[in-house]
Amino acid sequence: xxxxxxxxxxxxxxxxxxxxxxxxxxxxxxxxxxxxxxxxxxxxxxxxxxxxxxxxxxxxxxxxxxxxxxxxxxxxxxxxxxxxxxxxxxxxxxxxxxxxxxxxxxx
Length: 107
Fold this sequence. Notes:
By secondary structure, the chain is α+β, with helices and mostly antiparallel strands. It has one domain. It contains six helices and four strands, in the order ααααβαβββα. It has a four-stranded antiparallel sheet. The C terminus is likely disordered.
């Protein structure tokens, strides 16, 4: 079995990075040029489910996609309108994306 190098995964493949790379205000605060920020426009807005926002995420789940941080590829991707309380977004450590991505990805 081949597994990713943990150091390389943390640097290049962690879904947590998407929360920063998809936040225009954070990128501006980091000093990225407008040109560089525009290159990152294709990254969907990503938010982590936390204890503070879990209830709000549950209320708006029908417009979201959920994916555990530990999942890879298409494993464990949940459409918010199909999610039950037993699956999520109930716990910290899940990433969520706007559901309109379904339409973008299937085009």
